[in-house]
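Below is our example:

___
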Amino acid sequence: MSTDFQQAREALGLRLRELRLSAPGGSRLTGTQLAQRLGWPHSKIYKLENGRQTATGEDLKAWADGVGQPDAYDELHARLKGFESRIRSWRRQLAAGHRPVQDSWNLEVSRSTVIRAWEEAVIPGMLQTAEYARHVFLRYAELQGTVRDTDAAVRARLKRQDWLYEGGGRTFHALVWEAALHALICPPAVLVGQLDRLMGMVGMDTVELAIIPLGASLRIPPANGFWILDERLVVAEDWHAELWLDDAESTTTYLRVWNTLRESAVHGPEAQNVISRARRAVSPL
């Protein structure tokens, strides 16, 4: 079973558990109680919540009704449809908003020890402030015409950042083109706060921040952003979809691209100088 399929199935299971534990009525609904309501064996509840069984559309409808939250069915069904392919169209993924996408990411990140990211136009999500993330989600929701669950999406993205503080040998290698430091996809004051946060993260023991200056000589053209998780999974973004790639050939190719781009980057005090230059351009005073 492919990594992305299982990851999505487990993320759906976590959401099912969340709905069960937040059932209306003031008290938590146990797995046994839900199984009795639905006429299912208790083992089915366990398997669905732990990603060991693929739910059907009928299962999800029954679950939403059984936990007293029938309106959740559309979201659950949208997640199920995301199992169809490693090419995860934004239209399908965002049918229920950005929160389900963030939940899927969080589950995969929690399994990882070393993460590499290349972003040419935006600050990496693992390093974003809440207000910067809010504006990013709003821009994409407007573009795609999707549900605006911005607050929930921001909370999920910030929750992912806990990974940076958990120790255990975790390292986030962020490679960013300088253009991303100047992109006003948010108000100038928000960008200033974001750049200040980046300054504070240079030298952090779990973060290696490298920046490619605009004037640097490049061996290859910069292209769309991508993330490499433990050299086992690549997530690449395009305007129509995310690509989740777990074959060795793709991983090797993206690692080669990442390492080639990194040859043009600066680190440490030099990276801080680039950030400071961008900050002065946004807020000269």
The two ends are 55 Å apart (CA to CA). Residues 85-285 form a domain with the Endonuclease; Chain A fold (CATH 3.30.870.10). The chain has two domains: 1-84, 85-285.
